[in-house]
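The records we work with from here on pair a chain with its fold. Here is one such record, which you should read through line by line:
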Amino acid sequence: MTKEPCYEVARVPVERTLALRREVLRPHLALEEAVLPGDDDPATVAFAALAEDGAVLSVARVGPERAPFAVEAVDRAGLPEWRLRGMATRADLRGRGIGSAVLDAVIAHVAAEGGGLLWCNARVPAVGLYRRAGFLTWGEEWVEPVIGPHVVMWREVAPGAPPAVPRSGASPAPGTTVSG
C-alpha cells in the first residue's frame, strides 16, 4: 500500500511554480520559457501543494483576464473575470485529490476577491477534475500544437463563497495540512 503524501496548500510566488509547470505542461521548453503572460502582474497569484520537505506537488496560478468568449447564462456586466493557468500535478500523484485541493484554493481566492467568472483552457485529460469543481465546457475542442487537445471551461464563483461542489476525500483550504 502506497502512503499518501502529507502536504499543505499555500500561496507561493509564481516563480515557485515554474519548474513543475514546465515539467508537466511544457517539457519541450526551457525553464525560462515556462513563464506565462501575466505571471508578473501583481494581481496574479499562485498556489501550490507543498510536501513536508518543501517539494512542489501541484500548482496553479490565477489572475484577472477577460474571457475570450460570451457565456449567455452569465451577466458579465461588471462581473470580474479570472483566468486559471499553469495547473499541474506531478504525474505520480494524480488522482489523489492534491490537484483538487489546489484548485479549491484558487476558487477560494477568487471568491475572497469578489467572485466572478473563472475560466481556463483545459487539457482534455483534465476535464474531469474541472467538472468535479463545477466547471462547464464552452465551445468545441481544439488541438494546441505540441501540447494537445484542449477545451474552454468556466464557472461562476460567488463573492466570499467557498467552493460550491462538495468533494470526496481531503481538499484542504490554503494553509491546511493533510497527513497521509
